[in-house]
């Protein structure tokens, strides 16, 4: 079975169909409620997907890492129900609906792979709806595990500030939690990345995080 991560990576060979765009840190790629045309592929950088609540607060829905798609809900012709912010300077490729139709005509085998991506995004959305009911520790655990599952590697290329920006927690809160985890041997902190040493213990902190064997990391299989 092809994992969502492997599905998205296949888009690298079709970037010629998209329009390359540079997005500066903190810039908006698309806004909630706006009507766009097509979807995006993240080539470099980091993007967070948020949804605005009735009180005007932003709730984190997902983190998009290089090799993944975003804004795919636009393919049904409806408005965006989320907003995409660049956490880092990023490079994206935009695929218009017209370009996507042309691509499907030339590469029809991509349709089921695209459908798998849509299903994965919906699964993440359903889980993220209840994200804010979690404690700060559970939020960070969920974020790290979801990202490492996407990368299929337990080395997460983020900084403490990235985690704070993505979760909405203060940097002090993130620092204290990571310091305690490092002390207890759950993680190791290296320059601009975290190494997850005990994913089993992190999953116990957030036992309801979405996970499947098809979406697991190679390191986990060795346990």
UniProtKB/TrEMBL annotation:
Gene3D superfamilies: Jelly Rolls
GO molecular function: DNA binding; DNA-binding transcription factor activity
Pfam families: cNMP_binding, HTH_Crp_2
Cyclic nucleotide-binding domain boundaries: 1-71
This protein's GO CC annotations: cytosol
Domain HTH crp-type residue range list: 134-200
Organism: Collibacillus ludicampi
Name of protein: Transcriptional regulator
């Amino acid at each position: 079975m092809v994992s969502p991560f492997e599905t998205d990576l296949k888009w690298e060979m079709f970037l010629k169909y998209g329009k390359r765009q540079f997005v500066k840190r903190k810039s908006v790629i698309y806004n909630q409620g706006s009507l766009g045309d097509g979807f995006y592929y993240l080539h470099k950088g980091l993007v967070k997907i948020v949804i605005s609540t009735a009180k005007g607060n932003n709730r984190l829905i997902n983190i998009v890492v290089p090799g993944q798609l975003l804004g795919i809900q636009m393919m049904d012709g409806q408005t965006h129900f989320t907003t995409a912010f660049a956490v880092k300077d990023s490079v994206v490729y935009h695929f218009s609906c017209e370009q996507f139709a042309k691509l499907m005509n030339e590469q029809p085998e991509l349709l089921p792979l695209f459908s798998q991506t849509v299903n994965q995004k919906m699964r993440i959305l359903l889980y993220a709806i209840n994200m804010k009911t979690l404690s700060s520790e559970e939020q960070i655990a969920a974020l790290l595990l979801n990202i490492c599952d996407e990368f299929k590697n337990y080395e997460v290329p983020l900084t403490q500030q990235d985690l704070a920006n993505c979760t909405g927690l203060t940097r002090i809160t993130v620092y204290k939690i990571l310091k305690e985890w490092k002390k207890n041997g759950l993680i190791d902190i290296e320059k601009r990345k975290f190494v997850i040493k005990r994913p089993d213990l992190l999953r116990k902190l957030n036992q309801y995080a979405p996970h499947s064997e098809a979406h697991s990391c190679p390191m986990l299989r060795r346990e």
